[in-house]
Amino acid sequence: MGLMSMDQPQLLSKIATGDGHGESSSYFDGWKAYDKDPFHLTKNPHGVIQMGLAENQLTADLVQNWIMSNPEASICTLEGVHNFKHMANFQDYHGLPEFRNAVAKFMSRTRGNRVTFDPDRIVMSGGATGAHEVTAFCLADPGDAFLVPTPYYPGFDRDLRWRTGVKLVPVICESSNNFKLTRQALEEAYEKAKEDNIRIKGLLITNPSNPLGTVMDRTTLRTVVNFINQKRIHLISDEIYAATVFSHPSFISVAEIIEQDTDIECDRDLIHIIYSLSKDMGFPGFRVGIIYSYNDSVVNCARKMSSFGLVSTQTQYLMTKMLSDDEFVERFLGESAKRLAQRYRIFTGGLVKVGIKCLQSNGGLFVWMDLRDLLKKPTFESELELWRVIIHEVKINVSPGCSFHCSEAGWFRVCYANMDDRALQIALQRIRSFVLQKNKEVMVSDKNSKPCWHSNLRLSLKSRRFDDIMMSPHSPIPQSPLVKATT
Ligand SMILES: Cc1ncc(COP(=O)(O)O)c(C=O)c1O
């Protein structure tokens, strides 16, 4: 192959050759480490346990049972095949009217039936991922920006920025007030952007929060609505985790603020909700994303743009049948919350036993784990160093706070709903063992006045994996009966 001359035209676009996707971040690196060596209870028991994926697998059995009891809801069964031709041909980008009705009703149900949604404002999209991009295309031009409170879901860097040319400006939230969004933080970020000649077109919030697992209280939501109205900018509220809230305080949608809090002024044209069935129902593979905008022009434009990422009619059909079954939905949501609460209790309880704290939360599919005490120094370099130990030695894929644009080093997001009970127990055992080992190292280093427990830990683990230590009859940690029964 010859040398390329300087004036040779670039074969691919700047977008195609740039790194706007963000695939090189530690968030995705963790997934790659898992892909190379995935844990399996019997086939690969020393592999990496995936705790970096916010997936809800706890209720798959309920859905499976429903599908078996409702064969007519699938078009590839004897009972449903008569609808095959119609479904295979339907391609209207408005979507099936019954589907929009069912989704509007479900959105209302997941918000405690305290608000209603108009089916004509439901625009579908390829997951919340597609919904965010379409919304960004509708609201902003290249170079414009959205404010986003930190820490935030790393996918936003791809979804809102990559192909649209839109920027994201962080609004710094801190652990001193449990990462609560404040008016002051909003004003500071807005003013800073102005100084930098960046035009702010909107504010993007995630409620319940990924990665915090917390819900926004009414006062904060009112502050947010006030702020965006005063600045005349849009509010995008990502409510994809609405039904993952498993205990008090309950989730409050921005829809409730604008419908019920009549004492605050709000231009509805500025409000847009992003929703999806990926988390609440556990269907990320179905790619059911929703844009619900109170702005007619946004609804019209987004609908046209949705042609690039529609939900297949087969999926719409199945979802219509399932979400219209009130009895099933009621049972599903109740059971889902119960199982998530139990997982949260088991996981955080296990962490507390070895002195690991998490931000108190009541939603999402993850916890925000505080490992600040385990850092050599309070820096992101130290955070990544610790993260590499956790991935390669403890063999758990957790996501470091820096990949969520957290402003403080030492926080990690750990997902707990994408695995079965046995894998969770093994993950907990590995974490406990890691901390015990670390404490031992600190004791030794205290004696020798050598505070570098990380490097000691790595050396000591080379010859003996955590699993080996934990599975040993001499393990200091009592083994779960669940694990014992299967190993
Ligand atoms: C806050 C948030 N928004 C959007 C998405 C994307 O969801 P979807 O699978 O529906 O595209 C995720 C996925 O993790 C998320 O956490």
TrEMBL record:
<protein>
    <recommendedName>
        <fullName>1-aminocyclopropane-1-carboxylate synthase</fullName>
        <ecNumber>4.4.1.14</ecNumber>
    </recommendedName>
</protein>
<dbReference type="InterPro" id="IPR004838">
    <property type="entry name" value="NHTrfase_class1_PyrdxlP-BS"/>
</dbReference>
<keyword id="KW-0175">Coiled coil</keyword>
<keyword id="KW-0292">Fruit ripening</keyword>
<dbReference type="InterPro" id="IPR050478">
    <property type="entry name" value="Ethylene_sulfur-biosynth"/>
</dbReference>
<comment type="similarity">
    <text>Belongs to the class-I pyridoxal-phosphate-dependent aminotransferase family.</text>
</comment>
<dbReference type="GO" id="GO:0009835">
    <property type="term" value="P:fruit ripening"/>
</dbReference>
<feature type="domain" description="Aminotransferase class I/classII large">
    <location>
        <begin position="49"/>
        <end position="431"/>
    </location>
</feature>
<dbReference type="InterPro" id="IPR004839">
    <property type="entry name" value="Aminotransferase_I/II_large"/>
</dbReference>
<comment type="subunit">
    <text>Homodimer.</text>
</comment>
<keyword id="KW-0456">Lyase</keyword>
<dbReference type="InterPro" id="IPR015422">
    <property type="entry name" value="PyrdxlP-dep_Trfase_small"/>
</dbReference>
<keyword id="KW-0949">S-adenosyl-L-methionine</keyword>
<dbReference type="InterPro" id="IPR015421">
    <property type="entry name" value="PyrdxlP-dep_Trfase_major"/>
</dbReference>
<dbReference type="GO" id="GO:0030170">
    <property type="term" value="F:pyridoxal phosphate binding"/>
</dbReference>
<keyword id="KW-0266">Ethylene biosynthesis</keyword>
<keyword id="KW-0663">Pyridoxal phosphate</keyword>
<comment type="pathway">
    <text>Alkene biosynthesis; ethylene biosynthesis via S-adenosyl-L-methionine; ethylene from S-adenosyl-L-methionine: step 1/2.</text>
</comment>
<dbReference type="GO" id="GO:0016847">
    <property type="term" value="F:1-aminocyclopropane-1-carboxylate synthase activity"/>
</dbReference>
<dbReference type="Pfam" id="PF00155">
    <property type="entry name" value="Aminotran_1_2"/>
</dbReference>
<feature type="coiled-coil region">
    <location>
        <begin position="176"/>
        <end position="203"/>
    </location>
</feature>
<dbReference type="InterPro" id="IPR015424">
    <property type="entry name" value="PyrdxlP-dep_Trfase"/>
</dbReference>
<dbReference type="GO" id="GO:0008483">
    <property type="term" value="F:transaminase activity"/>
</dbReference>
<dbReference type="GO" id="GO:0009693">
    <property type="term" value="P:ethylene biosynthetic process"/>
</dbReference>
